[in-house]
UniProtKB/TrEMBL annotation:
Residues 5-120 form the Response regulatory domain. It comes from Methanobacterium paludis (strain DSM 25820 / JCM 18151 / SWAN1). This is PAS/PAC sensor protein. Residues 210-262 form the PAC domain. CDD domains: PAS (cd00130), REC_DC-like (cd17534). Residues 132-205 form the PAS domain.
Amino acid sequence: MSNVKILVVEDESIVAMDIKHRAEVLGYTVTSISPSGEEAIRKVAENPPDLVLMDIVLKGEMDGVEAAQKIRDSYDIPIVYLTAYSDEKTLKRAKVTEPFGYIIKPFEDRELHSAVEVALYKHKMESKLKESEKWLSTTLESIGDAVIATDNEGNIKFMNPIATEVTGWDSEEAMGKPLTDVFRMINEKTGTFIENPVTKVVQNDATIELEEPTILITKEGKKLPIDDSCAPIRDKNGDVLGVALIFKDITERRKAEKEKEELLKEKARGELSSFVLSALPVFASNIPPQIRNNIARSFSDRFERNMKPKFEEELKKCLEDYDNTTADIIFKCYISWLSEFLLNLGINSEETKGHENSIKLLNCPWIEENETSPMFCLICRAIIIRSFTWTEIKGNVEQKTCMADGAGECVFKFLHLNG
């Protein structure tokens, strides 16, 4: 943390010095304080920080939103906005700059720390994702195709160097052998051998793509995932002389795709944590009760706007595995989604089946906060109760136990489920 450099952009000198002091107490290094957007841009160019704390309302010709946009256009630096109030038009402009967070004045040290750490984490994940996409693109462009040509009987007549490398067979050794001796394929899911593609091409007189996912068994017995297609080789009269099998080893591509998928999950976890942490102002001691209640009511609505479309997408995918759609199946898909959702927040859960349908939250990553305030228990309650309504199952949710009350686990029971 001590290596994190922060630029503070604030036109009120007393406020700026207070922010600097609090950031340094938390272990961050404040490289500079800029009272204007123009100076902030110059400071970033002279000594790029790891993060910018930008007040939205600044004196002068350039406000914080315009300064943030210019910094974003030229530098890959995360920006967190500081604001006490803003009109709707300004907030819309601020959203366009894609900030990594907001801090509402006045704020607690914990809120400052959370906002900075989440912003740095999200920026790190986005940077890794960009690197992964660039690496994946370079990998795909550099991979060549392997080619094997056969006659109408399926005997090998040609192999290019890449084909010999992938299959493990020397071209002279493979010449004249049946394709099925050299190019042995199985279906990755079933493990069954795939029919000789030459036969299909000759019979159908057309190009075919082999069934997916296809696994090639090399001469040494190694199993490689491949993309492949088969096309007829014709003479000038259009008669079929043989078949060309074109394929590529996609091991590296799969690896890159898996890494990208993991990075996307990590990025999603960061965004999810940031979304939940955005509810902190609801429980700030200096928020008037009426405003607190309005924010509390809006949290469930914001949660639904952000998460319901993703839930519906996952539910649709889950239901594709079933022939019939019943309440029991929808509930099964819902619990699977909810468990994964909670896990991304660092919460382990356990489903109870049988006479009672319930879910137990086995831990709370914010237990220290819960010792003095049940804020995250309230958030979990809002998440579970609201998300259950998306299933359109007739029933309701009842919370049986709560960690904030001293229980070892939070238990939510789903009542009156119909099959």
